[in-house]
Amino acid sequence: MARTERLLRDAGSPDPGIVRCPLCGDDRSVPAFPYETLWNSHHYAYLSCRNCGTGFVDPLPSEAELLEIYRWATYHSAHYNDTSPPRHQRSMRALSRILHPGGAVLDFGCGAGDFLRAIRTAGYRCAGVEYEPSTIREAANRAGVSVRTLEETLRSGDRFDVIHMSDVLPHLREPAISLRVLERLLRPAGMFLFDGPLENNASVVSWTASSVKKIRRMLRVESPREAPPTMLYRFTAASQRKFFERMGYREMFFEVYETGWPYRATDGTGTKGLAKSVKGAIGWLAVSAAKVLPLGNRYTAVYRPETNLGG
């Protein structure tokens, strides 16, 4: 774990006291109202970078704090209990376009192992990487394939045709450093398959949630929530693509779509009665609007690193 932490450690800011965007280094960030949270006696606020458009939490949690945040019992089992989420179906379709069964796939940040189980069934050779020990055990048991730490995977000498990352980039302290490390695990002509949230993107759900929060704050009936800052970054479609462009990656495929989440939740949890009906209607409207307008709260994309373009 120590070596992994060194691989993914924060590069730090050369100017103490100045808050710089962790992705582009710009120091002109502004508060991203109304997003903030309280956890472990710390106040975490979200800022928005005026240069690259990315939202980010300030301060970034430490590696030790992230290990606590992403434990199986408190994070994955609570937030990822759907064994066949729609985003995996999209990832499966994208994977079938770029790699035939029999190819090697690494699921980085494999969570409960649901995508690993799906691609293993489809005939792909696969392995997973997770961050926290209890999650590694659960994912390996559920998927029936090898799940290791990043450090162990790097030592193994294994190489992959595709590295899949679903709902992962917003949870990494240093996404750019992490991707550079993962590039070592790609075969020549290897590619990244991403699927993730666009929490700051134009969306009926985003507009509604932000407006409601602002009204509640104005009426002083809502205070900052008390929960760990699980989402370290908040992207728009434009800021997400700009990040990959800065990485020097060639875009092979990029699709924005809308799920209506969390208003159109499918797990039966959350509000009941009239409130649930109203939220469900907003979720349905969000999905419908995204079919005819450039809106959406998620994306699926395929990128090839510059070093692999000649493969």
Short description:
With 311 residues, this protein is an alpha/beta fold.
Any descriptors?
alpha/beta, 311 residues
Describe the structure.
With 311 residues, the protein is an alpha/beta fold. Helix content is 36%, strand content 23%. The strands form two sheets. The protein has a seven-stranded mixed beta sheet, sandwiched between helices. The longest helix has 18 residues, at 273-290. It is globular. The model is unreliable at 1-14 (pLDDT under 50).
Which spans have pLDDT < 50 for at least 5 consecutive residues? Answer: 1-14
Shape: globular
Radius of gyration: 19 Å
- Summing up helix and strand content along with how strands pair, one would put the structural category as alpha/beta
Helix coverage percent of residues?
A: 25-40%
* Helix count from the secondary structure assignment: 11
Question: Looking across the biggest beta sheet, what order are the strands in?
Answer: 6-5-4-7-8-12-11
How far apart, in Å, are the first and last alpha carbons? 32 Å
- How many strands, which pairing sense, and closed or not: the largest β-sheet? 7 strands, mixed
Order of helices and strands: HEEEHHHEHEHEHEHEHEEHEHE
How much of the polypeptide forms β-strand, as a percent range? 15-25%
